[in-house]
Structure formats: structure tokens, C-alpha cells
Queue: 4 jobs
Job 1
Amino acid sequence: MVALEREKMVFLVVTLAIGIHFTATAALEPSVIIVGAGMSGISAGKRLSDAGIKNIVILEATNWIGGRIHKQNFAGLSVEIGANWVEGVHGEQMNPIWEMVNKLNLKTFFSNYDNLSSNTYQQAGGLYKESFAQQAFDVADSLAEFSRNISTSLTASREEDISILASQRLKNLVPSAPIEMAIDYYNYDYEFAEPPRVTSLQNTEPLPTFSNFGEDLYFVADPRGYESVVYYVAKQYLTSNSAGQITDSRVKLNKQLEREYPGANVLLVTVTDDESRRIEQQPDYETKAEIMEVLRNMFGKNVPEATDILIPKWWSNRFYKGTFSNWPIGVSRYEYDQIRVPVGRVYFTGEHTSEHYNGYVHGAYLAGIDSANMLIRCIKTNFCKFPIAAKGT
Ligand SMILES: Cc1cc2nc3c(=O)[nH]c(=O)nc-3n(C[C@H](O)[C@H](O)[C@H](O)COP(=O)(O)OP(=O)(O)OC[C@H]3O[C@@H](n4cnc5c(N)ncnc54)[C@H](O)[C@@H]3O)c2cc1C
Ligand SMILES: *[C@@H]1O[C@H](CO)[C@@H](O)[C@H](O)[C@H]1NC(C)=O
Ligand SMILES: *[C@@H]1O[C@H](CO)[C@@H](O)[C@H](O)[C@H]1NC(C)=O
């Protein structure tokens, strides 16, 4: 009898112990849902996984991993319709994306902008005279240096931010000749996807991407796609098959297949802002006709008709609503903190939440780690507050 009772007691204790054990396990192993399998979501998942939080599900709206890093077949070639360059290479710090690209041995081309003065075409055809073009590039360089100086002094004296265009006006050197506007477009509109009148001076001059990671750019042109860097991060914690596809049941989507990469005559054109909105609204054949007109004005009537055109439409895609975030004038660190501050149990990540590198692949990658760290700190130390510095500090 006594023995039986003892047995009963032990049994109860064991039951109780198991109960506690389950509760403790549940508390230590929370489940995390990641919305979006872009670079940032995949990066956050890796960081969580490294911290022992493996009970995750990644929900992706489209049928691909990589989000705005995405390749597509065009004219028998695998082309990138999203991110194309690794920006910020050969600087003091190593760009984490460049490290991945090298480990994967992706095919890249150094974008050499040293010889632009002998390679700039006039709209009506023919090259600009080198000395003339060189002068325009020199003026643009010195204007950019002036803007950096103004930006530094605004920050030092805690003055309010101005636009890039406003700083050009202070120097009384607003680009107006066609060559000046072309250079200005390349320096600003092309980089930030919005014109200098919109873009914040203080947050772009100097740009942390170039001052920390280096001034160089490499164009990724590999049949495996730029998306390889996303897979590189993903495969470190998600299961994949021998074909390199992510088969982990925690990722909910279908994946696309690889293709060959023969050489081809493909021209890449970038438009931004109002012009890109206009072009997304019209039929692709009209855009093709416009491009052919520009090319024939520039290179002569004998330019053969393009056989095809591919126009990615990121702006009208409801899952993206544009290509990447730009930091506009009037927006301070405070507003950016508001974008990423957690709302209850919902945490935010993405290139737009990156402290220094918004708009870039490395920004997405690093933001994923930062956001995951905030969540890990909350889970592990119960410190779930995200203090925001007051506006203007
Ligand atoms: C045309 C273009 C050119 C670019 N060029 C460069 C470049 O040369 N160099 C560079 O460094 N960067 C470049 N970028 C920027 C870079 O691609 C992005 O900064 C980066 O890929 C963003 O990653 P992300 O994870 O923050 O967002 P995303 O890649 O957008 O990932 C978010 C994911 O969430 C998914 N999603 C959205 N809504 C939902 C929903 N409701 N439910 C489930 N899933 C959802 C989306 O489908 C997507 O997969 C370019 C971008 C574009 C579009
Ligand atoms: C610069 O460009 C011109 C015109 O295309 C070319 O003749 C010259 O060889 C180039 N120089 C270098 C160093 O690439
Ligand atoms: C920028 O500041 C540096 C250092 O004060 C100065 O030497 C340089 O001339 C300035 N450049 C321009 C274009 O104003």
C-alpha cells in the first residue's frame, strides 16, 4: 500500500515535471512568422535560427525567393529585373554581399566610370569632345564635393536638412546643359530613384554605402542570378535539395528553375520617378518605339529594330509599390525609427529599416540581422522596448 502510494506520488511528480518542462520549452522556443522571403526576411530567419529560434515559418506572396533580387529570361539570356550591382566595394569595411558574391564565384563586371569623358554621346549623335565632357565631369565632381561640405557643416551645426538641389543652388551651379543634366541624372536620380529636388542632402552626401564599403560597383551578370546571395544565406539554415532549391517545409512557396546564359545584344535602360510611372502605364511596344527613336537619333537610322523588350513594373506591383526606398528631405532619423519600431509582437525589417544602407541589398541583409536581434533580445531577456531618440536629437 505504502509503496503504491509512493509510486502514485512519484507518478504525479513526474507528470507535473513534464508539464513544467513543456511550459518551459514553449517559453524558450517561441514561434516566429516571417512575412516575405526577400533578402531581409531570409537574413532575419538565419539570425533567429543561429540564436536557437528555429520554430519559424516564412510566408512569401510570390512564387520566388529573393523579392527584389530576381532574374528573368529575356532574349535567351538570364537578366536581372531587380538589383543588379553590388554597390560599395574596395573600401575600409567589407560589404557582406561582396563577400558572398566572391564565395559563390558569381560572374561580375567592374563598372569602370574612369573613361566617361571619352564615352559620352550627344543626343543628336556623335561623341562629346573629350575636353568638353571632361570639364563637365570636373564641375560635377566639385559640385558634389561642395554638397558634401555643406552637408557636413549642416550636421555639425544641427541645422535643418536641405535637398540636393538646394545645395546645388547655393553654389549657383544647377545642372542645365544636356551633358550636365545627364551627369546629374546618373549621380542622383539613377542612384536614389528620385530627383535631387526630393532627396535629402544630409542622408546621401556622403553616402555610408560608399564611404564605409568603398566607391566601386560591380555588375552581377551570372546565369545563376544575383538571387544566389539570398540562397547563400537561406541554405545556411533551411534545407535544400541537390539542385539547390530550398525544400524546407518552413518556407511556403514554389521555386523557379535555372537557365543557360549565351552572349546577346541586350541594352539596359533605367528610368526613374515620373518617367517610370509614365512608362508603366503605356503599352510596351510604345516604349520600344520611343527607345528606337532615341537610339536612331544617336547612332543613325540604320540601328536595327529591337526584337523584344522587357519592362519590369515594380511600381504597379502591389507587393513592392516601387523599386527601393529613398530618403527624402524633411525625414529625420526619428521617422525612420518609427518605420521599424515593433508594434506589439509584430517586428519590421526590410531595406527601408536599415540604419545606414536603405535602398540596397546589403541594407536588406543587415536590417534582417538588426530586426532579428531586437526580437531575440525581447525573447531571451524580456527587454522588449525599442527606445526612439526624440525628434531632432
Ligand atoms: C529595379 C531595382 C534595381 C535595384 N538595384 C539595386 C542595385 O543595383 N544594388 C543594390 O544593392 N540594391 C538594388 N536594389 C534594391 C534591392 O533590390 C533591395 O533593397 C532589396 O532587395 C530589398 O530586400 P528586402 O528584403 O528589404 O525587400 P523585398 O526584396 O521586397 O522582400 C520582401 C518580400 O516580401 C514579399 N511580400 C510583400 N508583401 C507580402 C505579403 N502581404 N505577404 C507575403 N509576402 C509578401 C515580397 O514578395 C518580397 O519577396 C534595386 C531594386 C530594384 C527593384
Ligand atoms: C577611353 O575611351 C575611348 C573612346 O571609346 C577609347 O578610345 C580609349 O581607348 C579608352 N581608354 C581607356 C583607358 O579605356
Ligand atoms: C570642401 O572642404 C574642404 C575642407 O574644408 C576644402 O578644402 C574644399 O575646398 C571644399 N570644397 C568645395 C568644393 O567647396
Job 2
Amino acid sequence: MDTFALAALLLFITGGVTAQVQLEPQSAMVLQSSDARFNCSTRQQGWTVMIWSLNGRLALTILEASGMLNSSSRFSGIDYSTTGESKWEFIIKDVSRNDSGEVSCQIQGSEPVTAGLSVQESGSVEIVGMNWTVMEGDQVVFQCLAAGWFPTPQLFWTVDDTVVDQQLFNTSSVEVGTLVNSNSTLMFTAVRNVSVVCLASIPSLITPLRSSVFLVVEKVEKPAHRDQTVLIAVTVSISAVALLVLIITAIVLCCKRRKRAKTNYQEEVRAHARSPKEGATHPGEGQGQDNLGYVTDPKANDTNSEYTDSGFWQSNYISTIQVPDVVKSNQEANNYHGTLGDNGVRKHRHVTIV
Ligand SMILES: *[C@@H]1O[C@H](CO)[C@@H](O)[C@H](O)[C@H]1NC(C)=O
Ligand SMILES: *[C@@H]1O[C@H](CO)[C@@H](O)[C@H](O)[C@H]1NC(C)=O
Ligand SMILES: *[C@@H]1O[C@H](CO)[C@@H](O)[C@H](O)[C@H]1NC(C)=O
Ligand SMILES: *[C@@H]1O[C@H](CO)[C@@H](O)[C@H](O)[C@H]1NC(C)=O
């Protein structure tokens, strides 16, 4: 073993002795506005004074005998010392970005030991747009915006709680002042309803921030189904039209038949009118009194007009109420009213019209 190696070994051993002071953690990443904490410990007895500094500035002095000398609202300590080990926790309250840097603990008679402090900022994360609906097989593009982060957040996606492969999305970031905005684009083919989540993470964040939306996928109707629907629609329409035609035909036929029946009836009535004796047996007889003034007039059967001079509704009315004799002869009766008959007797006519 040469002298150089011996010197190195001696240095190492000496270093080992000095390294009895330990600072933990070696590096801390904390969110802005939260607290940063470090532990400094030594088994060495009689260290007298411990000095904490942040970025080269004295922050807290602790005496072995009496504890903290200059604690403040920002910098304080907790004594975790046990027999055989001295240990103090250094607390920096409400850290801000400019606290990032170096935290050091120095015990009298030893080299200072340092640890890194990184203050980070979590921003917002949001998938652009709301829940949306697409057709099966459509290409869907989701965009996720993460704004106001430090450092650059890691963006990732889950689809139905399965992490999406990094090759399936693109992420770009831009610095805005001391912060970073990131933008991620995810593209895939819609197959079924899924929940899509975008997550943004930085080391100091225990659980990533997330934004989620639901993608509703509507099945494309199979052509066969569509044809069937059309077929049903056409069948129903044709059936409806056919039914309508049938009903109309039935109505027309029915009307014709009734008309014919009515005509037959009217002919019968005329026949009765020609032979008054027969008319007496007519069923309509009971509807009116015997018309004593009735005189058969050939003209009477020709007054078939709907509205007679005397203002009585004739033919149709007759067919309904069946008092043909009396009403029909009304006109003629009027002609005789107030005149003397051949035999010189005033004829009185009593007509009751129902
Ligand atoms: C410091 O040590 C104490 C006691 O072992 C422990 O409770 C605390 O969590 C430690 N703090 C850090 C920042 O490691
Ligand atoms: C660090 O930032 C805080 C608030 O963000 C500010 O009050 C303080 O003065 C800053 N300190 C330095 C050294 O810039
Ligand atoms: C999206 O859909 C889910 C579940 O249907 C619902 O809980 C949520 O409120 C919807 N979000 C928006 C922004 O419409
Ligand atoms: C990512 O970007 C590349 C190049 O700009 C592009 O070809 C690719 O389609 C993008 N992928 C996604 C998922 O957006």
C-alpha cells in the first residue's frame, strides 16, 4: 500500500468521523404554502450549538444545553433527542417558491451538511368539454389542459380505470412566467361507453389531480334492423289506406242502398195517395187526424218539390215522420180553405203536424 492510498484511507476515516451528523431527508419536495421539515442528528456528545440555514441565511440556532435561541413564526424546531443521540427537527412554515434551494445543518466542530428543498406548485387540470355522445366507431379526441404548475406536470390518462399507453397521447407544455401549462391530446376509437380521466401529477403531490368525463357511445343500428323498420312502416301505412278505402266504400254502398229503399217507399206512398182507402191503412195514419177535406188531386203527387209554397218541408220530412197524407195535401187544403164547396158547405180542415 503506497502513501497516496494510505492518505485516502485516512481521509475516508476522518470523513467518517465528521459524517456523524446526519440530515434527513436528502432532498425534500413540498407544495407551496405547506411546511418543509428536516431532521439533523448526531451521536456525538458535547456539540454545544446547531445552526440551521436556508439558502446560506441563518434560520435557527439551537443550543445543546437550552434549546432554540431564535425561533420565529417561519422557522422552528422540535427536539427528538434520546439518550445516546441528539436529534432536532427543523420546520419551515408556509414555504414559497423562492425558498427552494439548500437547507444546511452545521454542528460546531463539524462540516455543514446540506439537503435540497424544492417547492412546487400544483395547478388545475381539466378535460376540455363536457360528457359527450358519439356513434360507435367514431374517432374521439380528448384534450386535457393543466394550467399553473411547477414543475412541468406529468399528464396521463385512464380509460375505464386502465392507464392509457403513452404512445396513444401527445403532451406539450409551455412556460408562462414561473409556471407551466401543459396540454395533452388523447385519440381513440369509440367502442363502448367509457369514463375518461386525465391526471396531472408532480412529485410533491401525494394523489394526482384529475378531471373526468363520460363518453357515451351509441350503437350504429344494423342495416337489417333499419330495413325491417321501414318494412313495418310501409305495411302499416298500406294497411291503413286499405282500411280507409274499405270504410269509404262501405259507407257509399250503405247510402246508396238507403236511398233506393227510400225511393221505393216514396213510390209506395204515391200509390197509397192515389187510392185513399188504402191510405187509411197506412201505418202513418195514427200520426195525424183524418183529413176530411182531403180531395184527390192529380197535381198533388207532382208537388214533389222540397219546399212548398205553404212553407212546409215536404218529402224528406214525410219519410221521417210518416205522415204523408196530411202534410202532403196541405197545399191543396190551403187552396180550399175559406171557400165553399160545391155542395155549399164550408169545409173545415184540422191538421195536426208533428
Ligand atoms: C424526524 O424524526 C422524528 C422522530 O424520529 C420523526 O417523527 C419525524 O417524522 C422526522 N421528520 C422527518 C422530516 O423525517
Ligand atoms: C419569497 O416570496 C414571498 C412571497 O411569495 C415574498 O414575501 C418574499 O419576500 C420572497 N423572498 C425572497 C427572498 O425573494
Ligand atoms: C357526466 O356524466 C356523469 C354520469 O352520468 C354525471 O355524474 C356528471 O355530472 C356529468 N358531468 C357533466 C359535466 O355533465
Ligand atoms: C401526436 O403527434 C404526432 C405528431 O404531431 C401525430 O402524428 C400523432 O397523431 C399524435 N398523436 C396523438 C394521439 O395525438
Job 3
Amino acid sequence: MGTATNERKLAVVFLWSISVLSGTCNAEFTPADNYLINCGSTVDASVGRRVFEADNSKSTILTSHQSVAANTFLDSVPASDYAVLYQTARIFGVPSSYSFKMKSRGRHFVRLHFFSFKYQSYDLAVAKFKVSTQDAVLLDNFTPPSNSSPVVREYSLNITRGMLILTFVPLGNSTSFINAIEVISVPDDLILDLGQSVNPIRQYAGLAAQPFQTFYRINVGGRKVTADNDTLWRSWDTDQSFFLNSTTTQTVTYEGKLNYQRGAATEEDAPDSVYNTARRLVAQNNTASASNMTWQFNVDRRASYLIRFHLCDIVSKAMAALYFDVYVDRWSAAEDLDLSEKGFGTLAVPYYTDVILESSDPSGKLSVSIGPSSLNNVAQDGILNGLEIMKMNISTGTVEIVQPPPSQKRELPIILGSILAVCAATAVAILCFVLRRKKNKKPQTASTSRTSSAWTPLTLNGISFLSTGTRTTSRTTLTSGTNGDATYQIPFVVLQEATNHFDEQMIIGVGGFGKVYKAVLQDGTKVAVKRGNHKSHQGIKEFRTEIELLSGLRHRHLVSLIGYCNEHNEMILVYEYMEKGTLKGHLYGSDIPALSWKKRVEICIGAARGLHYLHTGFAKSIIHRDVKSANILLDENLMAKVSDFGLSKTGPELDQTHVSTAVKGSFGYLDPEYYRRQKLTDKSDVYSFGVVLLEVICARPVIDPSLPREMINLAEWASKWQKRGELDQIVDQRIAGTIRPESLRKYGETVEKCLAEYGVDRPTMGDVLWNLEFVLQLQESGPDITNIDSMNQISELPSEARRVGSLEISTADESHTNINYSQMSTNDAFSQLMNTEGR
Ligand SMILES: *[C@@H]1O[C@H](CO)[C@@H](O)[C@H](O)[C@H]1NC(C)=O
Ligand SMILES: *[C@@H]1O[C@H](CO)[C@@H](O)[C@H](O)[C@H]1NC(C)=O
Ligand SMILES: *[C@@H]1O[C@H](CO)[C@@H](O)[C@H](O)[C@H]1NC(C)=O
Ligand SMILES: *[C@@H]1O[C@H](CO)[C@@H](O)[C@H](O)[C@H]1NC(C)=O
Ligand SMILES: *[C@@H]1O[C@H](CO)[C@@H](O)[C@H](O)[C@H]1NC(C)=O
Ligand SMILES: *[C@@H]1O[C@H](CO)[C@@H](O)[C@H](O)[C@H]1NC(C)=O
Ligand SMILES: *[C@@H]1O[C@H](CO)[C@@H](O)[C@H](O)[C@H]1NC(C)=O
């Protein structure tokens, strides 16, 4: 029957090539690469039959120096299959990337899901950014639509490398974000190399290498098809909103079985539900009245499009009964098309063909029409089952790449071994010294002397990030257990360059661990580089602790660890740079203008939030152990972040109430219960934080040996004033008049509770946080007396602190402060020793 049609001399098939397809109708397609990422989430999410992994999983590498995991309430997300994905997003403040290791080369779908919502100070609806791969710009100047509905952008990319890096670049002051990502292999023959161009008429070669962006995918005359019902997780819209209702049509549905044929379309090209529904021209008795059925789409002007027509003759009762014309814009793409002529010898054969159009309509419209054939003696008929419109040449502009950390071989165990030997020897020396001074004690200096002799694998929340065993074990991806930001190994040369060869001019701080340099990475990111001093007693253990802890912690009020370097015996930690330095620096000993009371309380609230997160954010609480004003850093907006986790310890197991450990910490801030009984609980941090609160209100050092004896220790001295209800007498004179009495009273009570003799009597960090918020509220609910500038003019009287000369005290790290031991008790000296030696 098929050959019979050949005898018909009428058919002038013009520009209609029979694509030779290697169709198979075998088992369901299984993609080699199938990455489904639920960004900004800590949990996997099921969407239909698929599971989207949290982006802290091991399967992808997230490289970001500044990212926030954001979430919103499910009921603020429009109901859809994907709603659960749109509940969370990852927000980036700097260029950042996701890297996917590709198992297969060739065509892949890359789908990016965006849903904008408000999170804290971020309004995602105003985000403006660029997304690129190593080879193509996928989105430029992109701002999600403001109608608060999700958008999915789909790309079809021929991936020729072993790694796909998707880079998100915020533009201007803006941020970038992403809710979910899909990267899925598709059959190689989904897009073939050749197509027919209609304007001008020519054969177009080179489709195979091109990237495409899907603009429209329509199940003509049928229902919406969701990802779960599609063979390649595509979604197909109905044609309702595109069909120009200018002529009489009917929708048809085929109940029979489709006849997939080798050489025609496959089940992967479009699902059955596309081929077994169609829109059909209703035959007119009067030839003159026949007209085209037309669909119209908005597209970008002056771009090229690959238009794929999905066709399947599900209406004819016999072969060679259906003839029609196909148009794209006003160009003819096929004349007198006869589907049965394709030689398959049967009806209901799924078939597609590609047409390429260089769009020229200045209004940015693209239309597709099916019209009746002008042949005599044939019915006025026509059919269309499905349509895909894919933009070509999507890549304009330059791509940006944030490379993932290179994987490197490590020879760590040996290097660390030697460092550890030094540490152990020093530890023994300290131990002897301590034992001599404190005979009645059996200090558990285990934490310094029990240095493990090998670099054992570290596991944080189930993700091991440093591996060993053999010298050549390559580094596994270092990802966090909470919000999934990668912390990675940074080559020494990079840091050398960034710090101008560790230029002394770049030093922003010195601590027991070593020097801290300001550095600028090649991409302009400012970072703080903390370079371990090899002789330091804050040795390998603290180095490890800090990497281990910080890389797992991502919180708005905790300083993020960006990377580390352990090449050439180095112990270097790289942190986000905190523009405004330490809280301490803003309180006393510098020319920095005094912070207002409101600002001070806000900073304390921020720090309290960070500590509260440490204490409660994990199954095992994390005790900071060195809370002090020098460890509370301020970013450019004076937002507080807690830093320096070198001494951190995870809290007690459930069946214990405290961690026994050698006393460490900073003198003046130490919980008396802790150094008396070596009993470490999260309440030790609460005590130290109480001392910080005093520093904040009195603006003087916690230990000031130049003062009269009873005034040396801030905690002791100020507590006496507070107990007498006279805290107002010792408030920083620069702000004293601006504090509302109720606010001050509440603050004083909070401090007093924090400094309670026994841990059990102290509030939790959560209570402290709540109380500070109340302090702020009490301050703000009254008349505005926070204008510090005017207050500064009034209070020219020298403050008590000034009279006693505390401003002359150096603000160097405590370990460098010259302290007069003769004025101290044995306990004090012990803690001081631990402070200078331990840090
Ligand atoms: C960045 O933000 C500041 C203040 O919000 C504004 O003045 C400036 O114009 C912004 N710059 C850009 C490039 O958007
Ligand atoms: C991808 O592009 C390369 C050329 O860059 C080509 O050789 C290969 O066939 C393409 N693969 C597919 C699946 O189109
Ligand atoms: C999609 O699949 C579901 C069940 O898997 C079915 O109930 C539904 O009718 C399908 N929709 C289409 C358009 O095929
Ligand atoms: C086309 O128009 C007719 C009559 O105005 C209406 O009944 C029909 O629903 C329309 N069809 C579409 C697809 O809009
Ligand atoms: C077309 O003509 C046939 C008979 O010639 C008639 O039965 C039919 O109703 C007509 N159809 C329309 C749509 O006018
Ligand atoms: C269908 O559209 C094409 C292109 O716009 C036009 O040339 C043709 O005359 C139309 N056919 C009918 C029957 O209106
Ligand atoms: C699209 O890109 C191809 C090569 O990738 C190029 O030959 C062609 O001219 C481009 N077309 C347009 C309209 O830019």
C-alpha cells in the first residue's frame, strides 16, 4: 500500500526530509547521569517517582565562598508536584558553582528551577544574575518573573567534558539563587546533526554540537503531561493558550496502539500521550472557506529556533488519505505532506521532523500553521500532535567559571606525624609544669598529650572529608553536614600570592595559633588567612578541630571556613573576611567611634544566636570554650559572627552531663566552675558570654592589671556593682545617657544570671538570646534617645574607665598582654598559664 502512493504524481514534498532515525522500541531509557539536586535543603525530597538529593550530598560539589540556605513555608509555594523543591533555595552572594561529574558525554537535559521568595534580608524577586557552564551562558541578566510562580528553564546541552560546572554569578549588588537542578543524560539521537532551514531554504548541519534552550513544548490537542509521565522527565503543556481560534478544529484521541517503527520516532522522542492526541482541521465542504489552523508563540527576536513537529496519523482509516501543508511563520515547511508515504506501511506511526527558522518577526512572534493541501480530490484535512520550539545559539556573552577544588593527592599522615611529634613533646613539657604547680590535681591534659599518632579519617555528620589509610588516597569532596558548602584545600601558591608572600603589612591579627593575614583571592574575594605557627601549641589538634567543626557549620552568625592548606608542613585556615574586625576593637583601645547601645545589643544578639546554634543545632552540642570579645567579629554591616573554634569541643553524650578536659580558654572569661572542676558544659560558654556582655556595656578590658586590685577583673568588679543595683554607675560614659533604665535593668539581670557561680543556675544560650531581644525591645519601645552623636557632645566628662587609664591597655591578643602575676591567685595564674601556653 505504501508503494501505491508513490504513483501519485501529486505529492510535491518540498523541504521534507525523511530523517533516518535509529529508532528502537525497547525497554525504558535509563540515564547514565541523573543528578537531581534539592538546593539549600538538608533533606532529600521526593517528587513523583524521583528523589531530589539535598545539596550537601556527596554527588555534587558546591563551591561557594558565601552562600545561604534559605527556606520558606510550603503554603506560600503554589501547589504543584515540585512545591517541595521550591520551599528551599540556595542564595549566593559571590560567584559560586555546582560541579557534576559526568559519566556519559553527549546530550543532557539541564533543568534549573527558580522560585523567588523572601528570606531574612534577601528578596529573591530582585535577584539578578548570570548562569553559565564552561561553554555556554544559559541565563544572563536573569531576574525571576515577579508573579511569584516558579519557573523552570530547560537546556539541552551536548556535554563533551568529564565535568559540568554550573556557575551562578550575581550581578551588581545582587544575589543569585537556585531552588533545584536536574542534569540528566538523554539518548544521543534525540537531536541529530542535520535539519532543514526554511529561510533561506537550505540544509543545516551542526545541530549535534549546539546547545538549545527549550522555549515551548506542547502536547497539541491533548492534556498536560507532567515529568513523571514523560519518558525523559519533560513536561508538555496544552496548546490552549497558543492556539489562534480562527478556524474550526477538533481534538482527537486515539485509543489504539501506536506503531513505533524503526527509522521513525521513538518513545523517548515523545511519550505516547503526545502521539495519541492531536488537533485536526475539520473538513469543510466548501473548498474556498478552508483555512489554516495556527499557533502563535512569543520568542526572542533575531534568534534561531529548532522547531520539532511531532506527527502521527491517528485519524485516517486508510493509507494515503491525509494530505496537508505545514508553515512556519509565512514560510512553507512542507507541502502536501502525506504521512503514510513514509513507507512504514501502516498508520499510527509516531514520527517527527525538524525545521530551523531564523526568526525575523520584529514583534518577537513565531507562528506555526497546518493548512489544507491545495491538491484536487483530497479532503480538506490536517493534523498536529506535538510541537517543540528550541532556541539555538543561546550562548551570547562570556562564560564564567568557579572551578571546584582540584582533587589532590595528599601525603598528610607523614607531615602531620612530624608536627604531632613536636606537639606531643611540648605537651609533655606543659604537663610536667602543670603537675608541679597543681599537685593535688590530676589534670586531664589528655587532650594535648593524647594526640593520635595518625591522621585518622574524620567524619562529620556521616560525611568523611579527609581520608587516609594509604598515602595516595585522594581527597574526597569536603562538604558540610548542614548546609552543604564545600570547604576545600587551597594550594599554598594561591595563598602566597593572595597575601603578597605573607607580607607583614597584611597582618590583621596575631594569636596563639599564629598570624592572621588579610588576603585577596584572584576573583577579588577578600579572605582572612590564619597561618599556623609551627611552634604553636595550638597545634595540629586544634587545626583539625577547626577544619572539622567549621566546615560542618554554616550559620549567619558564625564565621565560615572557606578552605585550608596543609602543603609544606603548613597549617593554614582560610576564612571569610570580616571587614569591621573584632567587637573588642570597637569597644575600647581604638579611635573607632563608639557604637550606639542599640548596635551593641544587636551585636550581642547576633553572637548569642551563633552560640545558641552551636549549642543546639546538632545532635551533640558544640561548646565554643573561648567566647570573648576578640572572637566576635563584625562584617561590613556590623553584623556579628562568632569565630575561632580552635578549642571547640563537642558536648557531653546523653548519658554524661559534662566533658572532662584540660582547662583551656582565655583568662578573664573563664567559667570558675570549669577551671575548678574541669567540668565543661555549654554553661561555660554562657559564663564567658556574660563577661563579654560586661565588656560591651563598660567598654574596658576583662583583665586590666593597671587598675586597683579590686577593679582588675571585670567580672568580679562589675558583678559587685550589679548586685548593688548600680550597674548604671559603670556604664561606658559615651553611651550612658542613651540607655533607657528598663533596658539597662534587664541587661544587668541577664549578665548576673550568666555569671552565676554554678552552671545549673545559669540560663541557656537560648534564654540569653531571648532576654537580649527583650533588652532591645525595652530600649526601642521608649522615646528615641539613641542619637549618640548628640550624646557625645554632652558627655565630655572623662569616664571612670578613662580616669583609671584603661584605655592605655594594649588591645593585642590576651596572650601578648603583659600581666602582672603577683596580683593573681594561684587559680588565676593557672588559667593564665593555660591561656598563654594553650593558645
Ligand atoms: C548598590 O547598592 C547601593 C546602595 O544600596 C546603590 O547605591 C548602588 O547604586 C548599587 N549598585 C548597583 C550596581 O546596583
Ligand atoms: C556532541 O558534539 C560533538 C562535537 O563537538 C559531536 O562529535 C558529538 O557527536 C555530539 N554528540 C551528540 C550526542 O550530539
Ligand atoms: C500520568 O500518570 C498518572 C499515573 O502515573 C495517570 O493517572 C495520569 O493520567 C497520567 N497523565 C497523563 C497525561 O498521561
Ligand atoms: C474556539 O472558539 C469556540 C467558539 O468561540 C469555543 O467554543 C472553543 O472553546 C474555542 N476553542 C479554543 C481551543 O479556544
Ligand atoms: C458536507 O457535505 C455533506 C454532504 O455533501 C453533508 O452531509 C455534511 O453535513 C456537510 N458538512 C458540513 C460541515 O457542512
Ligand atoms: C496558510 O498560511 C500560509 C502562510 O501564511 C498562507 O500562504 C496560506 O495561504 C494559508 N492557507 C489558507 C488556506 O489560508
Ligand atoms: C548560530 O551558531 C552557529 C555556530 O554555532 C553559527 O554558524 C550561526 O551563524 C549562528 N546563528 C546565528 C543566527 O547567530
Job 4
Amino acid sequence: MTMKEFKIPLSQPDITDLERRYVMEVLQTPNLSLGPKLPEFEKKVSDYVGTRFAVAVNSGTSALHCCIKSFGIGPGDEVITSPFSFIATSNAALFEGAKPVFVDIDPDTYNIDFRQIEEKITERTKAIIPVHVFGLPAEMDAINKIAKKYNLRVLEDAAEAIGAEYKKRKAGSLGDCAVFAFYPNKQITTGEGGIIVTDNESLAALCRSLRNQGRGDTSGWLQHQRLGYNYRLSDINCALGIAQMERLSEILDKRTRVAQWYLEQLHDVPELTTQQIPANCKKSWFVFVVALSPLYSKKSRDEILSHLRKKGIACSNYFSPIHLQPFMAARFGYKEGDFPVTESLSKRTIALPFFANLSKENVRYVTDVLKNSL
Ligand SMILES: *Cc1c(COP(=O)(O)O)cnc(C)c1O
């Protein structure tokens, strides 16, 4: 993939002198990994979310994998999740030989339609992985109720949702465990990184072992209790994360302000809709995505994307359905038509440039170009 330079990028991390200072401080010590910044970062996140434990790892994908593994999910098992997500949500189950079973989304919130979950549950179902898509929490009370009834685990994929709230409770504190991700396009970044949050002590201990080659808490460097991975997050990354956590509310406020500018410019454009936010949820803005009305074809959406790019505006469709990714379709026989709401939405979405430091002038420019192209 060649990266074209756009005048206005799709996303951009919000890095200040505080982040640079904290990273430099680590570089003045010999503790570049498994040092003091790791527990310090973990505590910042668990305190913020309100969980007892946090286990930082080297990506959101690794965090999902550790959770799946900690649930004891394996070959032949099934997990229920959304086809309208990033591929990692489903891949985490595939890593352990389990099958992702999809449930279509709600057309307004873009989150898993909880009304359709029960009909997909079988003897082999072990977990539900709701995704808080674009930073909007899924219907967690309904999902937890179903999970309880069928004795299933709940893993929140909150990779896009740090700071989001469901009924005044923080995303990440609503299931058995949750993950956040810190790639540079996320609300806050550690360069690469992810974290597991949970109240379950044994699950946290297992994730800690899995990220560190299966070592036990007290066993030596060359003693391995179980099959593990190198999913460690370095202290350099953690220092960056600590600064970002200290600035989290500032960053989220800036992102909310940018989203408001977009909404002001676009609310009266009849061709466009945006994700509907239920009254009991607070969204943490991850991306700014508009959906064209169903009168538009995928082809005309793609023409609009090209037009925006020609005008120096980075943009993207968001997402491509997971069940239609070539390897998924080949392996499980999924086809066009299986999840119509997801498919219809995916053909009509446009993610516009969105980051904390996007200026009001640039929002105006992007929305003017978009309106002209409709
Ligand atoms: C970003 C993301 C992930 C994965 O995070 P990485 O850090 O890129 O591995 C997982 N799920 C969702 C929904 C994401 O958006």
C-alpha cells in the first residue's frame, strides 16, 4: 500500500511536550521493559475505568487474544460478535480455533443487534464480544442478561471507546473483561499497545502470564508455566501512555468539540446520517463517519471518496464487513446478503478527517467539499 500525502490527514495523534518528556525520562534509565512505568500505566487505566486490574500488552489484538485464551476458548467453540468491526475482533477467536458467529447490527447505532443474539446461541457458544463501535457503547444490560441466562462470558471490545459511558458507567467496566487499544489513530496512543481491564483476579493473572511467555508471577526467567507469548508493552510505550492518560479528558473534550463542528455543518444535509447516540450513552469520539442515504450506490460513494482525496482530504470507507473479507468468506462460506444491515451501511460510509487538533477552518473546508460532491 502506498501512502499518499494528503493536506488533511484522516487521523493524527495528539502529542505534546509532556509525552516527549516522559518518554525521554525512561530513556535516561536502564528500565526499558518490565520497569516501573508498566504498573504505573496500568494503574492509571484501571483507576480511570474503575476496574480492579489492568494488564497492558503490545496491541489491542494481543489484548483480545489473551482474553479469549483466558476464557479457555478453543477449537470447536463459538463466540458471538459483530460483522461491523475491525478484523481483530474476530481474529482473536480464530487464533484459538474458535468460530466467530455473527449477529447483524442495529441500523441506527451500528452496534450488535442484541435482539438477534439468542437465536445464534448453540451448545458450543462460549462468549459474546460486543464491540463499542466508533466509541458508542453497545446495549450492555441486554447483552449481559443473555450471557447470564446461557452462562456465557462477555468480552467488551472497547478498543474504540476509552472514556465512553453506558448508564453512567465507563465502557470497559461492563463485562467480564474488556480491551482498549492504543494504535496512533485511537483516542490516545502508546505508538502500539493495548490493555485488558477486569475485576477478575485470576483472569488478570493469567493474562499477565500469557503476555510474558507463560511465566508465573514468582517463577524465574526461564521457567514457563504454560504456553505464552511475547505481548509485553515496553516502558517507553507506557510512559507515552501515562502522559496521554493524564491528558485524556482534555483530548476527549477536543475531539467532542471537533465532532460538534462537523455536526453543525452537516446536520441539515438530507443525504447524510450519522450514528445515533441513545440517551443513556456517552460516546467517546473515535472517528467521524457519515452514511450516505440508501439512494446512493457503493459506486457513487467511492466517487465521492475519490473527489475528496483529489481535494487533499484523506477519507475512507469504514468498515468493510468482516464476513466478506476474502479469508473469512472462503473459510466459513459467508456471502453477500448474510448480514444485510452491515452490508448496506458499509457501502455508504465515509470517514472524514478526525483528530483532536483538527481546526474549525479545516472542518469547514471538508464539509464544503463534501456537500459540493453530493
Ligand atoms: C483498533 C481496534 C482493535 C485492535 O487494536 P490494535 O492495537 O490495532 O491491534 C480491535 N478492535 C477494534 C474494534 C479496533 O478498532
